[in-house]
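Work Package 3 (structural annotation) set out to generate three-dimensional models for the target panel prioritized at the project kickoff. During this period the team completed the workflow that converts sequence records into discrete structure tokens, so that structures can be stored uniformly alongside our sequence database. As a representative example, we reproduce one entry of 138 residues exactly as it appears in the project archive.
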Amino acid sequence: MMAEPVFVALGSNLGDRGENLALARDRLGALPGTEVVAASSVEETEPLGDVPQGAYLNQMVLLRTTLSPRELLDACLGIEREAGRVRRERWGPRLLDLDIVRFGERTLEEPDLIIPHPELANRPFWLRELAELQSHAG
């Protein structure tokens, strides 16, 4: 199976935010058939939604992976759990949030997995991070 370029957004606004992003990069790179090709700059952003919380550190990574979108989603959820994330409230604070933003040229619409990510156009920091990594995707 051919490795596909995949863009994954990392975010954290609890605990040691930089360490949480580093854990995510390490764990993503250790997945079977997966390598981290490049990582964007880290950016601090204001939280989205109405829940009062601290600022986020955000970063995007470009992976090359032979995993399927579902396998990668399951792995991302496992990495979030390993970091201590407990899913409580939508748009709430989190130790680690991993979102598959784009997966090769695929489009996918399942109840818990939509590719490209439906919020991409609404997150200027994702657009900046994606643009920064685009040259590495060739």
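The CA atoms of residues 68 and 103 lie 9 Å apart.
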